Amino acid sequence: MKITFHGAAQTVTGSQHLVEVEGHRILLDCGLYQGSRKESDRRNRNLPFDPASVDVLVLSHAHIDHSGNIPNLIKAGFKGDVVCTFATRDLCAAMLRDSGNIQERDVEYVNKKRLRRGEPPVEPIYTEEDAIHALGCFLAIGYERPYTLLPGVTLTFYDAGHMLGSAMVALDFADDEGRDRRLVFSGDVGRPDTPILRDPACLDAADVVIMESTYGGRTHPPIDESEKELEQAINETYRRGGKVIIPAFAVGRTQQLVYTLNKLFHAHDIPDMPIFVDSPLAVNVTNVFRLHPEAYDRETLDYMTKEDPDGDVFGFPRLRYVRQVEQSKELNFLREPAVIISASGMVEHGRILHHVKNNIEDPRSTILIVGWQAPDTLGRSLVEGASEVRIFGETYQRRAQVRVLNGFSGHADHDGLLNWVRAFQRRPEQIFLVHGELESAEALAAGLKDDLGYKPGQVRIPAMHQVFKV
Ligand SMILES: [Zn+2]
């Protein structure tokens, strides 16, 4: 078996691993690289292998850093199936279209500049139309339903507990001597007790593992602590007569917040106040969540079928979803206390910018940060306590409270990742650490050696495009 790491090597973005086995070429994930505009464009536009030579793509989950370059792969000549779970397929229907739309708008901006410099226009990496076409290549299978992927290769998905539909990928095949071998790709590993989702699956055996290392060396606070803080922040802001503004990713984090607020609302733990989800993508994605109760954990199913008076995890009387721009603008004139959840999650673009702009100078309001903020984003400067910020070219004084809740992460932390390896009854002989900055991958490698007794040669941190024969 040969594995080439074409992405998410010593970084957390652009997941893309090419596995060659039994004469077949299997691509694990085909994510977009997300970084500076120039670097992203170069990496995403030029695939580092011949797409037509790949037999099949196995997709671990719908996040854009794992799925986002699929339309480009297909445009460039890939003819095989994109195999994933049912929820991943349906999330991709919303997310890849949105991504195609972003690519088109991005290029419009670039082309305006190029035109001024007398340069010819460039084409988007792919369009919304390309994304829609790509959806025709998807093939969905359920969790723990072994499927003959290619002659001699069986694929089984296990729940990764990281986002709706997320999967760990197990490939079973026979090696040259006819021995049974198993390759496991962790995808992104979730955390136990994440709202809505089941806990990450424990697997019994693997020979080779490709695993994520995003939070190697770091520990998350417990989720229930953050739920308590969410409740407190809403109650305190309500008493001051302000608004709670929550920047959140439209996919996953928003639904997690809505479910938590649903329970708080029905338990009368938060005041009877309007709550808005202001993001067209979040509206579409929430509908996908509603379609996939097979992916919910026991607690969510029990709440939905036995306790929730509306029987809808993602709806309750004071909650309104906002799709139209006009309705979004009306929120600016709202005088009463309210909660507004909007995207983007790092306050870089989208409607959240308007809500932050309208509330940042109001000492009664709270800006609640519920996700990781990348360096050089407006979200990060709020976390770091900036006393003034620039939005749409204007400077604003920060008078609103800023609170940071770190417990909502969708990724396992250091101990969570070690526990996942520890749970194998027959531990993998070889582990490749991907999807983590070098520092995090090294911290996890050290943990595997110190706590689980791995030898240095058994744990590798591949470099970009590095090839391994195992
Ligand atoms: Zn992910």
Structural account:
With 470 residues, this protein is α/β, with parallel strands linked by helices. 33% of the residues lie in helices and 21% in strands. It contains 14 helices and 22 strands. A seven-stranded mixed β-sheet has the order 6-5-4-3-2-1-22. Helix 14 links the parallel strand 20 and strand 21. The longest helix has 31 residues. The protein is globular and about 75 Å long. The protein starts with a strand and ends with a strand. The model has no long low-confidence stretch (mean pLDDT 95). Zinc ion (ZN) binds next to loops.
List strands and helices in order, with pairings.
Elements: E1 2-5, E2 17-21, E3 24-28, H1 37-45, E4 56-58, H2 64-67, H3 70-75, E5 82-84, H4 86-116, H5 128-134, E6 138-140, E7 147-150, E8 153-159, E9 167-174, E10 180-185, E11 208-212, H6 223-240, E12 243-247, H7 253-266, E13 275-278, H8 280-291, H9 298-307, E14 319-322, H10 325-330, E15 338-342, H11 352-359, E16 366-369, H12 378-383, E17 388-391, E18 394-397, E19 401-404, H13 414-422, E20 430-434, H14 438-452, E21 459-460, E22 467-469
Parallel strand pairs: 3-4, 4-5, 5-6, 10-11, 11-20, 12-15, 12-16, 13-14, 13-15, 16-19, 20-21
Antiparallel strand pairs: 1-2, 1-22, 2-3, 7-8, 8-9, 9-10, 17-18
Helix pairs in contact: 4-5, 4-8, 13-14
Bound molecules: zinc ion.
The site of zinc ion has 6 residues, from loops.
